Amino acid sequence: xxxxxxxxxxxxxxxxxxxxxxxxxxxxxxxxxxxxxxxxxxxxxxxxxxxxxxxxxxxxxxxxxxxxxxxxxxxxxxxxxxxxxxxxxxxxxxxxxxxxxxxxxxxxxxxxxxxxxxxxxxxxxxxxxxxxxxxxxxxxxxxxxxxxxxxxxxxxxxxxxxxxxxxxxxxxxxxxxxxxxxxxxxxxxxxxxxxxxxxxxxxxxxxxxxxxxxxxxxxxxxxxxxxxxxxxxxxxxxxxxxxxxxxxxxxxxxxxxxxxxxxxxxxxxxxxxxxxxxxxxxxxxxxxxxxxxxxxxxxxxxxxxxxxxxxxxxxxxxxxxxxxxxxxxxxxxxxxxxxxxxxxxxxxxxxxxxxxxxxxxxxxxxxxxxxxxxxxx
Length: 377
Known about the structure:
Beta Polymerase, domain 2; alpha+beta
């Protein structure tokens, strides 16, 4: 059961790595703020959500199933269930992939669930473990912190897409290659992938910022409005990138058409040059007995020289036109999409290095405390 838990009491005491029994006790008390973060979800985690938190079966299925679900928000009166998407920064793929984050928002608890590593969650964890600040302002503010970090980590991806799009446009104008077309298609698929999740999330954040739900305090509404503004910005940037890529595709097709026209022009010139050679070869290839040049001692060498001179002249012309040179490779467009980790919120090198060792120790301690008392921290 790989999960982490934090409890911030009314007395200002922060507990971490709570046992199942301690989590049940905190829920019954209804005081303070509990955060349980579940990752690499297993059926055992589903049992925890059902037996301890009493969540609806349909929401638990969404958490346990590995398939990707559409962004949504469901109101179950006692709690809100929200599914959002961010960028999967751990995937080595030619196209941008998204990662799912499910959130339960209750009166004094938040449960987050994800099957992929999210730097945004690491960002909030880091602040909780160092200062506890995200837990000081209530459950709705903790949910805001998780969503805000998730959305902010989309922007470096947008910037990288914009940079690649600009390089593709330059290639499409200067030296269009097959790799240019491949890069254009990959960018278009990436933009569609992000837009497919960001568009519904914008409407979700709009609803969260309008005060539709009683679990969102009035003092937190403007925080969610800020996330909504970021999503609007992301949508505008995506549309700009999509327009740029569409223009690059049109430019690429136009450039390829022009190149084909130039090729046909050169082939026509080649044909025009070799027509006289064919004529000469045809004339002197006839087997008439009385041909004046047949008795000329240097006639063969003169005709052959004319042919070679004509060919050499044509080759020089073609070389100057660039038709005999290797094509320009253009800018190198990486086939594996990756954002520089230092640009992401939640990427703390020192913190990341100790994550594995700390989590293994915490799991062992928690397993010892599953039968009753709290695990040692």
